[in-house]
Amino acid sequence: MHRTYAGPGGGRRGVGATAAGGANLPALRSHNTALVLDLLRTAGEPGISRLELAEGTGLTPQAVSKITARLRADALVTEAGRRASTGGKPRTVLRLVPGAGQAVGLHLDRDELRAVLCDLTGAVVAGRRAPLDLGSGAQAVVEGAAREVEALLSEGAAERSGPVPDGAPAAIAGAGRSVPVLGVGVALPGPLDHARGVLHRVTGFPEWDGFPLRDALVRRLGMPVVVDKDTNAAALGLALGEAVGGADTSFAYLHLGTGLGAGLVVGGAVHRGARTGAGEFGHQVVQLDGPPCECGDRGCIEALCLAAVARGDMAEAARVLGTGAANLAGLLDIDLVLLGGRTVAAHPDAFERGVGAVLDARARREGSTAAVPVRIAPGGARGVAEGAAQLLLAPLFGRAEA
Amino acid sequence: MHRTYAGPGGGRRGVGATAAGGANLPALRSHNTALVLDLLRTAGEPGISRLELAEGTGLTPQAVSKITARLRADALVTEAGRRASTGGKPRTVLRLVPGAGQAVGLHLDRDELRAVLCDLTGAVVAGRRAPLDLGSGAQAVVEGAAREVEALLSEGAAERSGPVPDGAPAAIAGAGRSVPVLGVGVALPGPLDHARGVLHRVTGFPEWDGFPLRDALVRRLGMPVVVDKDTNAAALGLALGEAVGGADTSFAYLHLGTGLGAGLVVGGAVHRGARTGAGEFGHQVVQLDGPPCECGDRGCIEALCLAAVARGDMAEAARVLGTGAANLAGLLDIDLVLLGGRTVAAHPDAFERGVGAVLDARARREGSTAAVPVRIAPGGARGVAEGAAQLLLAPLFGRAEA
DNA sequence: ACCACTTTCGCAACGCTGTTGCCAAAGTGC
DNA sequence: GCACTTTGGCAACAGCGTTGCGAAAGTGGT
């Protein structure tokens, strides 16, 4: 008895409305259901009571009761103990059932493929790694990726049924009815079209120009596929994670690895822009007529930052990165800056301190306003793949687009 | 028989939901009504038929019929002729009644106060100008502003009744039942808190620090007041105007006058950030360790740009401005850049060309993507005051916040 | 042990939303 | 003048959150 909740590409602004924005009763229901699910997700292990859900959503307790009753009927939510009484009937604690759905996250890095299988809460159930050669042609890469996904799903199926006594068929064992897989999220660097799932360019591999990656994977795998930039996936994963405050937080994830890019989260949703072009942080010019950059311009922050890294001058690299972060923070009034990527991971303290110093200095100049906090993004190397899985999970919780 | 539509501060994300996000039937209704009103507003003089509204909103024709029936009962909408037949009953054309509501826009500039009275479509019905001395103390300025608003409203009342034959009482003449005034929007430079309507600082006048401008005006005038930065008001006015494409367009309004600031519109709504700090464009650093700026930092775009202007080197000023615009366009993937302010107005061609050249060059480097178009913002000196009035009008059309 | 009280939460009736089925109105074109 | 097309209102309907009320499940005093 599975009903349909807001699926991928469902909602644009608030209510999971039609493309044009008109909202009807099913859309209203999806919206409120997603809101409740998001609070349940955020509450995590301890769980949350109906009345707390009502308070958190602004819905009446009765509406929450009806919504949670549907969710329980669909086995997405269970009752899990009760709170201590405050003089009356104790509140029943509800919890999201993590295993009620899964999604695959795929990270196609320059030379490596990472795949993770995540449950509804975003926790990793199984993971795989494989070498990746983008030069072997689009079809071969698609085929290889599809095989990894299939292998991951069978691992997951074994995992799902749990430690089974003797040779009982996996499909029958435990609570092991087949777990619905929502789809595959794919994250990769470079410019692309998130809405259509088409790559624009892959640096160094012109044969990929304009390749319709999503459609190819949908045909091969027969399940929903969403494609996005690696920085956006990482930012989405962070937005839904513990490092970031509430559901309405705005922050920037700055990724410094072989290149420099950013993922922007505004009001709790990833901001991609109409052409999935947002977050181009690396070619921000911070030195007019400065040293030439690969891109053809001069004084790009990426060129300056990477040059400093190459010299081993991490303090200067952090100062340059901090300048760009301060520019960004001033433009968007964000709440937080998170740093990630291989280079940052190699010198976390230097970057956290250096970037923070620039933001502190700016806040001090402006007067009363508190400085934008800077932290190292948790999650590490697997963060992008986990975020890619969230491309399918997030819509369930009303975190689709900006 | 006036019902309540989405008022100021009503909706945050899409549906005019509660603070927490939960949506109920009245919220759904407000949302759809606002959607219909926005299409009616956009259609303007020619008008729009019910079926076109249905197509535009995604609602069913019957739902549109019900909504427009309510709007007609409330005298916000009238039938205005019919379309040519295509072989059946011709479509009835509906039009927004401009005079069904008014709002006051107040622009407190450095040395001048501008006040405009706008109808529902944003058209100026009446306007006033007066000298302004921020040094005369907060109470005196509030009192002066309030007197201008009152004077404007009586002018408007005369205007409303139209050319009346002989000495008929204005309240009876024509369609002249009293026009509801939605409130006053106030725009002024400098950091402030849009949500609370409190000023943080007014450069050069420390006695204004932390002044609760909104509450003071509400007490004095007894009507709703919304306060915002001048650049945000200008951007809002442009977002609802003809210069900007659809309701979902994202653009930046760059204002170069005595200072340099920006108003950001993302997805059709003004982006202010949690602390109304967004749009600080002028102190973006584009020249590391460059010449010192008033703010205490070095290489700020404002310092470089204004220095070039002072030298009379408009080409260089435009190039610097264009660099900042390109940085911004890359970060947010916006659709359009609009330029305004006294300095731009004095040399429109030089700035439009110069900024455009930088954006074109970047687009060419990136390959296929078309360059972000650059235009001079229409509206001129009165644009900010008109945008301030839109602070009250926009919520009616679902254009509250981001 | 019992009772009064508090608090949670589901059932039932309700108002209001957009939706669907149907039909009158108002045109065109043969 | 008739057949056809298209618009748009009326009426019945399903489904949303809301309200009123009562059962369930505790605490705390007697």
From TrEMBL, chains A, B:
<dbReference type="InterPro" id="IPR000600">
    <property type="entry name" value="ROK"/>
</dbReference>
<comment type="similarity">
    <text>Belongs to the ROK (NagC/XylR) family.</text>
</comment>
<dbReference type="InterPro" id="IPR043129">
    <property type="entry name" value="ATPase_NBD"/>
</dbReference>
<dbReference type="InterPro" id="IPR036390">
    <property type="entry name" value="WH_DNA-bd_sf"/>
</dbReference>
<dbReference type="InterPro" id="IPR036388">
    <property type="entry name" value="WH-like_DNA-bd_sf"/>
</dbReference>
<dbReference type="InterPro" id="IPR049874">
    <property type="entry name" value="ROK_cs"/>
</dbReference>
<dbReference type="Pfam" id="PF00480">
    <property type="entry name" value="ROK"/>
</dbReference>
<protein>
    <submittedName>
        <fullName>ROK family transcriptional regulator</fullName>
    </submittedName>
</protein>
